[in-house]
Amino acid sequence: MAISLTDSAADRVRSYLEKRNDSVGLRLGVTQTGCSGYSYVINYAEEIEATDVVFEDKGVKVVVQTDALELIDGTEVDFVKNGLNEAFSFRNPNISGECGCGESFNV
Questions:
Q1: Considering only CA atoms, which of 102, 99, 89 is closest in space to residue 35?
Q2: CATH number, domain at 54?
Q3: In terms of residue numbers, what domain contains 61?
Q4: Which of 4-8, 37-41, 45-49, 61-65 is predicted with the least confidence, judged by mean pLDDT?
Q5: pTM of this prediction?
Q6: How many domains in the chain?
Q7: Average pLDDT for residues 75-92, to the nearest whole number?
Q8: Higher confidence at residue 68 or residue 102?
Q9: What's the burial of 77, exposed, middle or buried (CB within 10 Å: 0-12/13-18/19+)?
């Protein structure tokens, strides 16, 4: 089981974590929403709970709740800049489909 970060994503997360004193890493999860079933949730991890699994990649801790891990195991998180737009993107080997707008997925 693993969650990985591209160099771009790791650099972005590290730059934000350096500005925050209360965060231990990046929290990645999913929520049921959208037209395809699930959507990614990305936030700062302020603590590590007993139900969390922690991965470390490129010096960044990635914290995932156990129940979300089966949906996103093997995902690579990237940070992409395209003109004025910038966002995290996800390469999830478990998805079987995505909605047309790319905001949600199903497995």
A1: 99
A2: 2.60.300.12
A3: 4-96
A4: 37-41
A5: 0.86
A6: 1
A7: 91
A8: 68
A9: buried
